[in-house]
Amino acid sequence: TVSVALFTSDLRLHDNPVLHAAVRDADAVVPLFVQDDGIRRTGFDAPNRRAFLADCLVDLDAGLRRRGGRLVVRSADVVAGACAVVAETGADSLHIAAGVSGYAREREERLRTALGAVGCALHVHDAVVTALPPGLVVPAGRDHFAVFTPYFRRWEAAGVRGTLTGPRTVRVPDTATSAPLPTRAEVTGVSPGLAEGGETAGRRLLTSWLHGPMADYGTGHDDLAGDATSRLSPFLHFGCLSAAELVHRAREKGGPGADAFVRQLAWRDFHHQVLAARPDAAWADYRPRGDRWRSDPDEIEAWRAGLTGYPLVDAAMRQLAHEGWMHNRGRMLVASFLTKTLYVDWRVGARHFLDLLVDGDLANNQLNWQWVAGTGTDTRPNRVLNPLIQGKRFDPRGAYVRRWVPELAGLDGAAVHEPWKLTGPDRARLAYPEPVVDLAEARARFERARGLG
Ligand code: FAD
């Protein structure tokens, strides 16, 4: 018998229920990745993610080869590509991870119909992408939690599934032919500081994280200059690392840092269970508030380019452009600045993030944007983050700003957060813009728009 393990957001050998079942249940297995025309058409395969994905596929192939197998890659509509491989190899079962987006669900339905017609069984595996499957814990009479704290209580009590070891050997039938693997070098428009992708790089980073910086995560995660978060998000997005394994390994280590880290992993599951229940929330307001968003093209462009005149906002936006990644505190600030200070539709910001973020993820990105914009699950939808106060708290010495905004690198200490206070020739020498907006006026405008006094 032959089975197909169709990889999607689970590009790993360790703790992969899809690959585990495919290898266990058949004599030979086709480890398949289809570069999906459908995803390409949506524009979701932005350069940074394409480059990281190429690394992931090359690494997955190398890992399979060490076990006697190899990765089979096709470029096609995912259902057509999978069915072609099933026909060529005579496979009688196909395994895939359950997805949460509308697109993933539709893919699953189309596979079910197409494979059913040729007598090939479809096996959909839960808790591959998330630690707990969406829908496993729900409040009475509802299909998802809309508030994180009660969700987290139930999430902790439910317990995450045990982890699986990777296969020792993988036998691939000769009839399974592959297109050449994509490479990072083929992708243009990649951010210069983009991290290396793949399970090997992810496991290396995970090991150093667990044995070092995680201990201080509880107190240090908001320190922008300290850069003291795990940076594991792209590896989780592509499934190079398993969320369930991360929960177990962090808990094994223990301590307040591990607890805080596990809580963030639960946030990831939380947003996934919201999107699974409300796939429309990818682009529609989760809780419409009647916002009549502003749309000033110059202000939006200044935000995108990191030229708003607010150093902390600009530093974060430039980190995004350079690395394809941004610190969570930066993400919250720039999203609040766009949606509340400039009062621009959150979809404009979410789109820009998806164009650049290497971890750009429909559930996490869209629902975090909605959370910050106040159209989502935040229980304080009208809070506005002030870049000056955020600077004092999370970049008190200004080191983060100096790192990312070279025009301001000559300013000492916290003065870097308020360059407009300079006068005379000192100000004239700075090639840095005036603020695009007055914070007090912007706040009053937002409060009027939301009908707050
Ligand atoms: P850590 O602080 O080390 O956290 C560990 C892991 O927990 C992360 O890798 C991530 O998987 C998860 N996590 C942490 N915070 C959150 C959160 N608020 N929501 C969901 N999961 C979380 N995360 C993405 O993975 N993809 C996105 O597209 C994305 N877009 C965002 C957009 C906005 C406007 C905001 C405010 C947040 C967004 N996040 C997104 C969440 C968060 O900022 C990133 O997951 C985090 O910064 C990644 O860095 P890290 O791996 O070092 O995180």
TrEMBL record:
Record GO terms (molecular function): deoxyribodipyrimidine photo-lyase activity
Every Photolyase/cryptochrome alpha/beta domain range: 1-130
Known EC number: 4.1.99.3
Known cofactor(s): FAD
Gene3D superfamilies, alphabetized: 1.25.40.80, DNA Cyclobutane Dipyrimidine Photolyase, subunit A, domain 3, HUPs
Keyword annotations of the record: Chromophore, FAD, Flavoprotein, Lyase
Enzyme class: lyase
Similarity remark: Belongs to the DNA photolyase family.
Identification of the protein by name: Cryptochrome/photolyase family protein
Origin species: Streptomyces yanii
Lineage of the species this protein comes from: Bacteria, Bacillati, Actinomycetota, Actinomycetes, Kitasatosporales
